[in-house]
């Protein structure tokens, strides 16, 4: 749900300070943690009581005091004198004398103000993106560069042959080929050119999720000859799936898949019965994506793998209210299975039958109850549940269709923190 | 106050929206008119106009019949033509779906159900009361006939009114 601020005239904003009328108070929809952590202005009489109750707050570390910073003892000075020269020792002593222990105590204490950093860092390293981009200097640029001619290359080769050591081998020649330059002009212009573009953060094939791509590669990908059976298996179905869906292997591992229905089916031909295995699987990322996949195969394991892969490929977003339950009561009907999914309050849990439970777990729905009426065929139950979950209507869309405004009262009451 | 006719109206509106009609008509009666105005107030239908057996002229800008049509004025209702009047309703659609969902009767001609304010409160919170299901889906409404006209269940609670439960719109 969107909580747009009321539209105001642009020109009104210039004269706002002059207007004596108080503006309409608006509720802040952001969690104001910085203010919540502040101490109350008036000391609380019941502070001792509340402190006893409120044990969840992290304990503060004892603050450093100026007395904690003492001068070097004679033994320490003797130990230092072994490492440092007389002049250096004098400099250490001068530095010690120059800095007030009170300042040291102030600086070493962790910051408590609202703007303090929420992480530990000594800020000694420039982080690209966070601090600034690290680029090659502009002075590397040479506007007079020219590509080398054939004669230049011949000259380079001649120089290499002239300077060649007595026992030169292939490695020396390869090194020469690597090091030989292809342009004339400044060396940095060719090797480390300055660019106004944002520098590359990652190496080729590297992502935020998988910074160490080399280690995560399978044996097959690394081109190792002795492949394990697991790697072999992954190269067929799994690799194909990753190609079509665009998921990385770690993302695919986090997808929850489960075969819910599996039975053999028979095709009667004039030559006899042909048995095959049927599988129905569900897949979900537990964050609102859900898919079902069906497959048939002569082999049971084959059907399992195919059904799971198809379920992952078919994953679609399921609308979730507060990321825990569904919007309104839903009905689904496939064949003779008629079911009803009912939204429930937080903490209710999944009080549903096992097939719907598995689907809700995969989709990330946590509060739900359901009734399955008439038939309870497992295959049709799964399909009807999927249909029901997909038939949800967005309240925002309903409000737009009816020309009404809508506000989620729970969201406002809990300051957008539900 | 015939609930038989009201049931026919509910079915007719369900049929009309399922075949995506833009304009439809229902028999004229005071109860039908009040219910339609309540539906229009809730945003389920776009227009309510009393016209003759043929559809009234469309508004040049809106595209559906409207009472404030200055170009082709709607025929005024007189004692002579009142018997032939019908209520013409403009139906709304949004993103290939009908805005007016499924209408179903709650009271039946043989079994009228009345609700007090305290019972209505429970219904609006989603509880079932005396075989009347709670309002548990987004965009669901329940219409009641009270002594101050036909209105939505939540409006009844605001005005502290109970009444006869007519129909439910999902």
Automatic annotation (TrEMBL), chain A:
Intracellular or extracellular location(s): Mitochondrion
> Which GO terms of the molecular function aspect are on file?
RNA binding; structural constituent of ribosome
Q: What is its main location?
A: mitochondrion
Q: Which InterPro entries match?
A: Ribosomal_Su5_D2-typ_SF, Ribosomal_uS5, Ribosomal_uS5_C, Ribosomal_uS5_N, Ribsml_uS5_D2-typ_fold_subgr
The residues covered by the S5 DRBM domain are 255-318
Q: Please list the GO biological process terms of this entry.
A: translation
Instruction: Give start-end positions of Polar residues composition bias.
Output: 47-57
Q: Compositional bias (Basic and acidic residues) at which positions?
A: 58-71
Gene3D superfamilies on file: 3.30.160.20, 3.30.230.10
Swiss-Prot/TrEMBL keywords: Mitochondrion, Ribonucleoprotein, Ribosomal protein
Q: Which Pfam families match?
A: Ribosomal_S5, Ribosomal_S5_C
| PROSITE patterns per the UniProt record, alphabetical | S5_DSRBD
Region entry Disordered: which residue ranges? 38-71
CC annotations in GO: mitochondrial small ribosomal subunit
Stated role: Component of the mitochondrial ribosome (mitoribosome), a dedicated translation machinery responsible for the synthesis of mitochondrial genome-encoded proteins, including at least some of the essential transmembrane subunits of the mitochondrial respiratory chain. The mitoribosomes are attached to the mitochondrial inner membrane and translation products are cotranslationally integrated into the membrane.
Report the family membership.
Belongs to the universal ribosomal protein uS5 family.
Protein name per its UniProtKB record: Small ribosomal subunit protein uS5m
Taxonomic source organism: Penicillium alfredii
Which taxonomic lineage does the organism of this UniProt entry have? Eukaryota, Fungi, Dikarya, Ascomycota, Pezizomycotina
Automatic annotation (TrEMBL), chain B:
Q: Output the SUPFAM superfamilies linked to this UniProt entry.
A: Ribosomal protein S8
Could you tell me the superkingdom of the organism this chain comes from? Eukaryota
Report the InterPro entries cross-referenced here: Ribosomal_uS8, Ribosomal_uS8_sf
Of the GO CC terms on this record, one is: mitochondrion
The cellular location(s) given in this protein's UniProt record come to: Mitochondrion
Q: What keyword terms does UniProt attach to this protein?
A: Mitochondrion, Ribonucleoprotein, Ribosomal protein
In the record, what terms sit under GO molecular function? structural constituent of ribosome
Entry's Pfam families? Ribosomal_S8
**What does the UniProt function comment say about this protein?**
Component of the mitochondrial ribosome (mitoribosome), a dedicated translation machinery responsible for the synthesis of mitochondrial genome-encoded proteins, including at least some of the essential transmembrane subunits of the mitochondrial respiratory chain. The mitoribosomes are attached to the mitochondrial inner membrane and translation products are cotranslationally integrated into the membrane.
Identify its protein family. Answer: Belongs to the universal ribosomal protein uS8 family.
- Protein name in UniProt: Small ribosomal subunit protein uS8m
Originating organism: Penicillium alfredii
